[in-house]
Amino acid sequence: MLLPTNYNTPGRESYTITQQMGYQNTCWVNANGPNCNNLLKLLDGSIIPLKGAPINALRPSVDGTRLEYHLFNYLSTDSVRRHLFALKIFTMPAMLNKWQDFVMYLDLSSDPNEARFKLWKNDKLYINEAVRLLPPGVGSMGDWKYGAYNGEPGNGERTLYTDELRVGDSASTYLDVVNPVRRDRLLNLSMTQSSLASVSFSQLDSLPSLASMKTIEAETVPEPTNAIAYATLLGGLGLLKRKSK
Asked: Which of 9, 59, 165, 210 has a Cα at 20 to 30 A from 39?
């Protein structure tokens, strides 16, 4: 993903979403539909209504120098089938006018001991959470969207670029989905190609050679000028790992 200098043209505080995941996210059509009557547990332990289905989302700051990831964790279901979630917000630095490479790992297991979410940016692991994204009876995230979502109508344009989108499966390794240029740089590190290529996602973040290395930053590139790029869906680098229990 590349955020140009003018990605948020008016510079308004309205939030911007550049990637989101949700399940059966049609509550804006029917507020009383399936999985729309949910609850949110706050940090102080209080519980409030959660409007619609939870949306896990990547959000850049107004100036494009910081990213937030909003991650919802399913906790329980009450006697009237309301699902209770907790929200965690993770922050990481961002860069304007540079390509930023993302790798996402999902294990959607219904077993809370196996369910997990991981997110790397430029080969640095920023999120590694044991989190159950789906409540009982829901088997898929369903809606996995990329784009520039403006916070409210009338709050100005958003511009971003994307390239090299890949989707893996349960057999994929990190190297199968990472940007090819970044993959080649990783292979030039201390580990051999054969040993690194076989590393699973569960092992990757614990390897000393990768955990201690300096982050490989993306090169500064000119802002794209091809008008077609404005119409592309937001990419980044993605991996979906699904398990059924």
From this structure: 59
